[in-house]
Amino acid sequence: MRKSWAVVAGAVALAVGLSGCSVLEGDPNKAPEPSITIKRTPPPGSEALAKFYSQELSWKGCGVGQCADLTVPLDYSKPDGETVKISVLRMRATRPNEREGSIVVNPGGPGGSGVDYARAADFIVGKPVRQRFDIVGFDPRGVGRSDPVDCLSDAGMDEFLGSEQTPDDAAEAQGFLAEGKKLGDGCVQLSGDLAANISTIDAAKDMDILRSALGDAKLNYLGKSYGTYLGAIYADLFPKLVGRFVLDGVLPPDTTPEENALGQAEGFERATRAWAADCVDGGNCPLGNSVDAVMAGMRQMFKDLDAKPVPVSGDARVKELTEAWASTGVAQAMYDQGQWSTLTDAIAKVKQGDGTDLMGLADAYASRDPDGKYTSNLLEAFFAISCLDNPDSPDASTYEERAKAFAQKAPTWGAFMAWGGAVCAQWPVKSDVKPHKVSAPGSGPIVVIGTTRDPATPYENSVRLADQLSNGRLISFDGDGHTAYGRSNSCVDNAVNDYYTEGKAPPKKLDC
């Protein structure tokens, strides 16, 4: 879990589950005119891409919303070479006569579907925003419907995700490294040149071509989790094309793989302690009668499952809950406190020798059905993109040392997060991306949101990016769960809604 295997699990599940719901005013199949008609030309220095910037999208009704394909170069250094089709979905503003433009959205990952996310437009932005903006989502290259990267069979993914992920000795460490190499080699074998051209920089360049195709002079954007990293990279490349930008639950581009891993370990530790307090307050907590006792009980549960997995029923392939699957299930519940009671009940059943319910949480994390079918390539794309963006050390001793150091600050999650980087240790394709600060001089206000007990994207990350940006604004939400806009309180929601609809940026710092 370098950043998070399913940072977008809750958001994507919402989008998929509610994709049949939308309340529209007007004809959803009639394409509105852009609020600002501009000449579709590339920004200075990108003239070789003129044919891509000049394209107009051919929208067609597709059940809920309108769909189109955007054409972009596979390799931006070879604009006359192969191309990639990017799947785009637009949910029209519910009051077309008041339409102000588009907001492009990304739910995170990497690997999350922006198409599925945009389908839930009624639920991911406030009503005033929904009325006045088209909500546009796209599956980034390599993801979902946009030439998806493929790395392993479904059975191979089961083996990878269920295997030992906190090695206890040198043999287990080499085995884990071998599993990561198998995944990377599979990406190259099954996906060819695509595997080398799905970095976040590529996706950010695609997003600017999408901006032009939408007819917008500047890009309005809502990015959550990894979507903040994508947004920050866009702002770094195209600062003067930044419109109304909101980055919620931050992954700063200047953090190293080690910093990311430690930050997540500490974030999940805080979130798990918050769940533990809730478990104790509810009475009859299956792991202990105090927060410290519950945390110790969680670690013992993982250790016991490592030595002796418990049975799982009703699954086509996975017959036992291993330590790896259990940790994935627990992590899933940390993204939203609405899942805490489900986790408590699932752990109680594990203590009784039944891993079925905790495996169900792990399935949700992995976008996996009990019949063994993965409903998206989220995890394959996650690693394929992450390992291009943030390559890590090939030396197993690096992760052994990190595991020991991280355990001092995050006893429950330190080893999991430390060893997560090893998946990218021997990744077969490389990039020249380096961690770097983003200031985006000349941009409009960029609103950054941080949740104080966010497990996947620690609050400190949001403070860090807001401070680096030349025109950053920080909204701090004192609460639990992953991200804040649309799931926290009216203080956050009203500030973001006013920014989008009125152009009224929040103050430099706003506490909610």
Any overview of this molecule?
Helix 19 (490-502) links the parallel strand 11 and strand 12. This protein is 43% helix and 13% strand. Helix 13 (340-351) packs across helix 14 and helix 16 packs antiparallel against helix 17 (414-420). Residues 1-37 have low confidence and may be disordered. The chain has two domains: 10-146 and 198-255 and 436-511, Rossmann fold; 154-194 and 259-424, no CATH class. The strands form two sheets. A ten-stranded mixed sheet has the order 1-2-3-5-4-6-7-10-11-12, sandwiched between helices. Strands 8-9 form a two-stranded antiparallel ribbon. It is globular. By secondary structure, the chain is α/β, with parallel strands linked by helices. The protein contains 19 helices and twelve strands. Residues 1-25 form the signal peptide.
Give a brief rundown of this model.
The chain is α/β, with parallel strands linked by helices and 512 residues long. It has 19 helices and twelve strands. Helix content is 43%, strand content 13%.
Element layout with pairings:
Blueprint: H1 9-17, H2 50-53, E1 60-61, E2 66-73, E3 83-91, E4 101-106, H3 114-119, H4 121-124, H5 127-132, E5 133-138, H6 154-162, H7 170-191, H8 200-214, E6 219-224, H9 226-237, E7 242-248, H10 257-282, H11 291-307, E8 310-311, E9 320-321, H12 323-334, H13 340-351, H14 356-366, H15 378-389, H16 396-409, H17 414-420, E10 446-453, H18 459-468, E11 472-480, H19 490-502, E12 509-511
Parallel strand pairs: 4-5, 4-6, 6-7, 7-10, 10-11, 11-12
Antiparallel strand pairs: 1-2, 2-3, 3-5, 8-9
Domain AB hydrolase-1: 103-287
Pfam family, one: Abhydrolase_1
Signal peptide: 1-25
